[in-house]
Amino acid sequence: MRDLVIIGSGPAGLSAAVYAKRAGLDTLVVEKDPVSGGQILITYEVDNYLGLPGINGFDMGMKFREHADKLGAEFAEGCVSSILIEKKGNEKETPVFKVVTDQGEYKTKTVLLATGASHNKLGIKGEEEFTGRGVSYCATCDGAFFKDKVAVVNGGGDVAVEDAIFLARGCKKVYLVHRRNELRAAKILQEELLSLPNVEVIWDSVVEEVKGDSKVNAITVKNVKSGETKDVETDALFVAIGIHPLTESFTDLAEMDETGYIIADESGKTSTPGVFVAGDSRKKRLRQIVTAVADGANAVTSVQDFLVGKN
Ligand code: NAP
Fold first, then answer.
1. What range does the domain containing 222 cover?
2. Do residues 227 and 136 both lie within one domain?
3. Residue 118 has pLDDT above 80, yes or no
4. Which residues contact 293 (CB under 8 A, 6 or more apart)?
5. What's the number of domains the chain is made of?
6. Average predicted confidence (pLDDT) for the chain
7. C-alpha 47 – ligand 1 centre gap (Å)
8. Ligand 1 center to residue 25 CA distance, Å?
9. C-alpha 19 – ligand 1 centre gap (Å)
10. pLDDT given at position 44
11. 163: Cβ–Cβ under 8 A, 6 or more apart, which residues?
12. How confident is the model at residue 47 (pLDDT cuts 50, 70, 90)?
C-alpha cells in the first residue's frame, strides 16, 4: 500500500514527486507516455519560467524528471482507466484507493490527479482525413517537415502565436488564421509575430475545410464578418485552438465544472477526501508551468496533512 499515487508526469506530477519524496512518502508516479514532461515536451521554447529564459521544453522536461529521479522517485508506465474507492476513510483510518491501469493495479491511501490537458480539434471536413498528412497539433514535432513550404496556424492564443513564430524560422510563408481581430496571446509574443516579414495574419476568420489529395494543398477560410470564403494554398495546417482537461476517467471521483476541469482551490483538495488535483486539469485562472509546479507542491502539503489526520 502506497501513501500516494501521482497520476501524470508533467510539471505538476513531477513537482509533486519531488515534494513527496522529500517528505518521505511512499510514492509512485503513474505515467501514460514513456517520456515524462507532458505538454512541455512539445513546446519549442519556454521563455517565462523564472531563471531559465528560453529553455527548450523537451530539455526542461528532462531536467524535471532528473530531479525526481535524483530523489529516488518511482515511476510506472500505464494508462489509468479507473480509480476505485475500496474503503472509505474515517477519523481513525485513511481510505484505500485502487488505481487500475492497463499495466497493473496499485493500492494507495491518497491519489493526486495530475493528468493535465490535451489539444482541441476543429471538427471540420478534412481535419481527420489529413491528420499526419499536413494537419498537425504540434508545430515543434512536425514543423521541420515543412521547411521552405507554406504553413497555416489556426488560433490566437499563446500556443498559436508561438507556433507561428517557430514555423516562420523554417517556412517560406506562415499564415495565422484567427477568428477575431485581436490576439489572446501575451503582448511580447504578438509583437514578435507581427514583426516577422514572412507571417501574415488573416483576421476575423475561421478555417472551414482542409483540402488535398494525398497531402494537404489548401484550406478554405471564411471571414466571419463578411461571410466571404476563399481558399488559401498551404502544405500544412497547425491547429492551436486551446486545450481540454484529461479527466474523463475520473467523473465519478471528483466534482468538475461543465468543461471537465476538477474543482479545487490551491490546496488541491477535491470533493473526495484523499483525492487531490494539481496542474492544468484543476479549475483555475492561469495555466502555466509555474502554476502547475506550485500546484504539485501545495497538493503534497495537503496530502501530508491528510495522512496525519489534519484534514
Ligand atoms: P488558449 O489560450 O485557450 O487560446 C485558444 C485560441 O484558440 C484562442 O485565441 C481562441 O480564440 C481560439 N479558438 C478556440 N476555439 C476555436 C475554434 N473552434 N476555432 C477557431 N479558433 C478557436 O489556448 P492555448 O494557446 O492552447 O494555451 C493554453 C494555455 O496554455 C493558456 O492558458 C496559455 O496561456 C498557456 N500557455 C502559455 C504559454 C506561455 O506562457 N509561454 C505557452 C503556451 C501555452 P479567442 O481568442 O477568440 O477565444
1. 121-239
2. yes
3. yes
4. 11, 12, 15
5. 2
6. 96
7. 17
8. 36
9. 30
10. 81
11. 139, 140, 143, 153, 155, 238, 240
12. confident
Instruction: Look at residues 192, 219, 239 and tell me which one is the last residue of a structural domain.
Output: 239
A 10 A CB-CB count for 262 gives 27
Q: Which atom of ligand 1 is nearest to the CA of 47?
A: 41
Q: Which of 208, 239, 270 is the last residue of a domain?
A: 239
What CATH number does the domain containing 160 carry?
3.50.50.60
Q: Name the pTM for this structure.
A: 0.88
pLDDT digits (tens, 9 = 90+) for 74-84: 999 999 999 99
Contacts of 34 (CB under 8 A, 6+ apart): 77
pLDDT at site 225: 98
Any ligand 1 atom below 6 A from CB of 156: yes
What's the CA gap between 102 and 162, in Å, rounded? 35
Tell me: the pLDDT tens digits for 256-270? 999 999 999 999 999
Closest C-alpha among 68, 67, 41 to residue 56: 41
Phi, psi of 2 (to 5 degrees): -85, 160
Catalytic residues: 138, 141-142
Residue pLDDT, tens place only, 138-171: 998 889 999 999 999 999 999 999 999 999 999 9
Name the nearest CA neighbour of 108 among 55, 31, 29, 165.
29
Judged against a pLDDT cut of 90, whether residue 16 lies above it is answered with yes
